[in-house]
Protein: Protein S-acyltransferase
Amino acid sequence: MVFLSIVSLLLAGFFAYHTNLCLTNTTTNETFKWQDYVSWQKKLSEARASAAALKASISGMSTEGKRRESKCKAFFRRSPLEDADEVVKNNVYDKGFFHNLHEVIFPPSSRASFMQTKSKSD
Structure:
């Protein structure tokens, strides 16, 4: 019974993962590629924010007449790295929950309208 419960939990997780893939209309390969893309975009935006902060600090050092910021304010100031843009995935094949589910249950290749357009083009 313990073995069956462990296997059923694993299969339920596997089923939930693949249901999520079907409803978002993605493949496992696309999922991993998106993770790489999002991490690359996040690193790129952090590097841009860091470069902008460095440029601002260098230009701030050159102006000597400027009043210095207190240590307390400098400690609680937000980091420019936190202002980095959020990376958004844009899946062009995700057409919504119900349309994706309909496409999984009734694939376009098995529909009569698809067969008619295929025979007309031949």
Q: What stands out?
A: Residues 92-122 form one domain. The mean pLDDT is 77. The chain has five helices and no strands. Residues 44 and 84 are 9 Å apart (CA to CA).
